[in-house]
Amino acid sequence: MRKRTMGARHSSASDTSLSSSPERESTRDAEPGKKRWEATTPCPPMQQFTGEIPLLPREVVEEIFLNLSPEQVVNHGRLVCREWKEMVDSEALWRERCRREGYHLRDSSKTPEDWRLFYFLCKKRRNLLKNPRAEGGLRGWKIVENGGDKWKVEDIKLPHPNEAVKNIFMTSYHMCTKSQLIDLVKEGYTRSFLDQFQPDIKISDWYAPRRDCGSEYHIRVELLDQRKKCIKAFAPETVSFEQWNDQQWHQMTHVFRNYGRGVRYVHFVHGGKDTQFWAGWYGIRVTDSQVEICPYGDTYRRMPLTRHTARLSLFSQGALGSPRLTDARVCPMTFKPCLSGGVTAVNIGKVSVCVSAMRKRTMGARHTSASDTSLSSSPERESTRDAESRKNRWEVTTPCPPMQQFTGEIPLLPPEVVEEIFLNLPPEQVVNRGRLVCREWKEMVDSEALWRERCRREGYHLRDSSKTPEDWRLFYFLCKKRRNLLKNPRAEGGLREWKIVENGGDKWKVEDIELPHPNEAVKNIFITSYHMCTKSQLIDLVKEGYTRSFLDQFQPDIQISDWYAPRWDCGSEYHIRVELLDQRKKCIKAFAPETVSFEQWNDQQWHQMTHVFQNYGPGVRYVHFVHGGKDTLFWAGWYGIRVTDSQVEICPYGDT
User: Fold this and answer.
1) What is the per-residue pLDDT across 548-595, written as a single tens digit (0 to 9) for each?
2) Is 622 in contact with 536 (CB distance < 8 Å)?
3) Which pLDDT tens digit goes with each residue over 195-223?
4) What range does the domain containing 543 cover?
């Protein structure tokens, strides 16, 4: 219910429209104590918040965008209004973002057609090889040659320069090679970007011999066109190691540059063998392979923002259509006079910026006479100041200038506006950075009201309104981070994380899914055999982040879900039992339905077993989940019940 005005004043036209109705006139006359703003009335102090947020100048909005996460800016900022959409889509915004984060062009003569795409490709730079450190066995790799005793994956024994490396690929006594084909277009790099920019393509591979056996190492990397014909290749000579070598890790690196147009794929092949033909795995060891697309010049080192003084050019002249703000310094203060002297500090998003202005803290946005006296005490300062224009100095009797005429001074925002900003920033940013700015902001971030309002806006409602949380922030984050507490529920990691309770017949087996599942993300299933097969997981709720007081006071819903299906040509049985346990792992409450049986020649459809634990009482600390089954015809193989996509979820808020 607010008209766009210059500054924060009501126009005479709006006064006329408001007084046109006799009822409105009488109502207004009945409140003589209420202050009316006329065109000549100075701005009231800004801390007396009227519910109207001032129209921010373009430069301030751009600065906010530059300090928010880029995903937020694109996904939300563009939807607000036409002006914001144009600002988010502008070349200047993303060019400035690249400059601040250190993404410089390797060749300044080649400017991107789309600076936003260039920024995101730099931001999301990553290793394009799947499973480069053998954490998933040989998954993701195509075995080209598998000689001798074949490829093998083992835990690392010789320390690697990268401490994150825990596994290695090992070769045998005949040639072992493996490969990956990387589709650059599917990885997000457009054809026009690849052809116009020809970004650096960096190759890296680590290899090491055994000290007691000679070995050979081979690598070949090719850049391919759309028809998978080679455009450029890197194929160094074979690296050989003698027996009784130093057994150190070596790195093979190469950078493809100026390779021409048409590159669409990268084909990476490496491997080797031992040279003494010993049975076992005495050949070359490889791990931590990398293929990276580098849109920006690596010769420029990215400099993170720090709290140390550093002159910044916030807005380049003409680039964003705005004047240059100078003498900006990173500083921990926010919307308050900075202790470093003579500047106003502004904190927006991730960084704190102090903008130079000869302005002291006042009620509203006025210079006091005391500040004028202190500044003019020196004759040199007085003469310098007289030589400059005095425009943009706000006197006590001068009304607020229109806000779109940005003077480099950002007003002291009222708490309501700061709180509104907090409600629209990511919660992790608010907690990790907002609390560190000043005492007032810390109290605001820790307040119950902020997180209660956040819960209300995002739809996290209490299931029982009589039970209010002791800690609304904890309640909010538990709702926000709601997730499946079972590990490896869809068999993507084989039987990892599951404890095998019974392993009858031909034992548990993991296979690719054949019968389509309602959840398209499900790709694997667990299959039982002709004697009972059961497996379990024990979930420690305290370790998962749910405090004892929260569990006892709130007793949030605990939702159980499990999918199971029979084979159509064989009868089978399905069993499930879920228990809520106390600290000593004694059962408080259990869900154990009757065995579900399927006859031979059934419809072979997926079925879902669900249950919700409610009002189970205090003391719950663990959830014990057990399920499984068998076939009923005792056929050798895996004809028993199939299970997948099991779930255990804590639901702090009412799902209704």
Assistant:
1) 888 888 788 899 999 999 999 999 999 999 999 999 999 999 999 999
2) no
3) 877 888 999 999 999 989 999 999 999 99
4) 499-651
Query: What is the 3-state composition of the chain as percent helix, strand, coil, each rounded to the nearest 5?
Result: 20, 25, 50
Q: What is the 3-state secondary structure (H, E, C) of 444-503?
A: HHHCHHHHHHHHHHHCCCECCCCCCCCCHHHHHHHHHCCCECCCCCCCCCCCCCCEEEEE
Contact between 144 and 153 under an 8 Å Cβ cutoff? The reply is: no
Structure tokens, 549 = 């007081």
- The answer as to whether 243 is a domain residue is yes
Q: Are 168 and 153 in contact (CB under 8 A)?
A: yes
Residue 634 belongs to some domain of the structure: yes
Task: Please report how the helices 415-424 and 439-446 are oriented relative to each other, as an axis angle in degrees rounded to 10.
Answer: 60
Handedness of CA 244, 249, 251, 252 (dihedral sign): positive
Query: What confidence tens digit (pLDDT) does each residue in 291-321 have?
Result: 988 776 553 333 333 333 233 333 333 333 3
Which CATH number fits the domain that encloses residue 108?
1.20.1280.50
List of E strands, 325-430? 329-330, 336-337, 343-348, 351-356
Which DSSP helix (H) or strand (E) runs through 554?
helix 548-554
Residues β-bridged to residue 557:
651
Q: How many CB atoms lie within 10 A of CB 132?
A: 23
Sign of CA dihedral 585, 588, 594, 597: negative
Q: In Å, what is the CA distance from 379 to each residue of 58, 389, 460?
A: 38, 17, 63
Q: Are 471 and 603 in a shared domain?
A: no
Sign of CA dihedral 130, 136, 140, 141: positive
271: phi > 0 → left, psi -120 to 50 → alpha, else beta; which? left
155 lies in the same domain as 75: no
Question: 649, 323, 644: which is closest to 514 by C-alpha?
Answer: 644
Q: Tell me whether residue 375 is in a domain.
A: no
Residue 475 sits in the same domain as residue 514: no
Q: Are 370 and 344 in contact, with CB atoms under 8 Å apart?
A: no
Contacts of 640 (CB under 8 A, 6+ apart): 505, 527, 528, 529, 530, 533, 567, 570, 572, 573, 629, 630, 631
Are 469 and 603 members of one domain? no
Task: Determine the residue type at 534.
Answer: T
DSSP state of 70: H
Q: What is the DSSP letter of 327?
A: S
